[in-house]
Amino acid sequence: MARNAEKAMTALARFRQAQLEEGKVKERRPFLASECNELPKAEKWRRQIIGEISKKVAQIQNAGLGEFRIRDLNDEINKLLREKGHWEFRIKELGGPDYARIGPRMLDHEGKEVPGNRGYKYFGAAKDLPGVRELFEKEPLPPPRKTRAELMKAIDAEYYGYRDEDDGILEPLEQEHERKVIAEAVEKWKMEREARLARGEEEEEEEVNIYAVNDDESDEDGAKEKDGEEGQQKFIAHVPVPSQQEIEEALVRRKKMELLQKYASETLMAQSEEAKTLLGL
Fold first, then answer.
1. What's the whole-number mean pLDDT along residues 68-89?
2. According to the model, what pLDDT value does residue 117 have?
3. Which of 15, 136, 200, 245 is at a distance of 20 to 30 A from 217, taking alpha carbons?
4. 260: number of CA atoms within 13 Å, CB side?
5. Following DSSP, what letter does each residue of 231-281 receive, concatenated?
6. pTM of this prediction?
């Protein structure tokens, strides 16, 4: 007994099929939606495209098809979606409903809207392909920024460097570096001084140490400081410092002038100045 496939290839089977299809010409979908001028036919082609999309979406759910077949199916589905959009726009031009506005959204098997990138959508197993999964991973949220009040809580004396010497490490290092720098400066000064002497230049007059204190110099303030605690560092004033009595007299004169300016007339002030001039005050 011949198999079914062999039976279908017999001349009788082909002849019978030709008789059944005689007078029936299959109408093909136009390549461009603008070539269709009848609203019912445009609706028909849109429904046909939706049927093809449904079949291919069902096929792409199978992850065992292989990466290349899955990519091809996904491309074909996106091509059909663009074609469906063209037919919906043509239906609207012919006076039909606006499917782009009232039509349902494209959802996946989980009921979520199909994700895509710039109009290109991924279906079924295509979302798990290499390089595609990373497109849908959400970036972690940046850490919240601290307010000024939160930042000020961590600011103390150590932030401004006031406790840098409390560890006992920095201060000895600074002292050692200071001694080294002073020794280098003194050595440089001695070498320059010897070089000047060797060239026969007159030695400049040594600078007077204004901070030196002679034993003969003493005043009332110095006597009071001597009466203080022994071992306490002495304070030497290099400018004339008024005494307490002089300060009181200056305050009294200033108060008198303020009262005269407030209550005395200009004529009385002029007479007072003239009298002081005559008396030599």
1. 89
2. 45
3. 245
4. 14
5. TPPP---SS----HHHHHHHHHHHHHHHHHHHHS-HHHHHHHHHHHHHHT-
6. 0.41
| SS3 category, 113 | strand
Q: Which helix (H) or strand (E) holds 21?
A: none
Across the range 210-232, mean pLDDT stands at: 52
* Selection from 115, 123, 117, 128 nearest residue 59 by Cα: 123
Q: DSSP class of residue 183?
A: H
| Closest by CA position to 87, among listed 137, 128, 129, 52 | 52
User: What band does 171 get if pLDDT is binned at 50, 70 and 90?
Assistant: confident
Q: Which two tokens stand for residue 272?
A: 């007072």
Dist CA 29 CA 263 (whole Å): 114
Burial class (CB in 10 A: 0-12, 13-18, 19+), 41: middle
Contact between 73 and 60 (Cβ < 8 Å): yes
At 121, the amino acid letter reads K
Residue 60, exposed/middle/buried by CB under 10 A (0-12, 13-18, 19+)? buried
How confident is the model at residue 179, as a pLDDT?
93
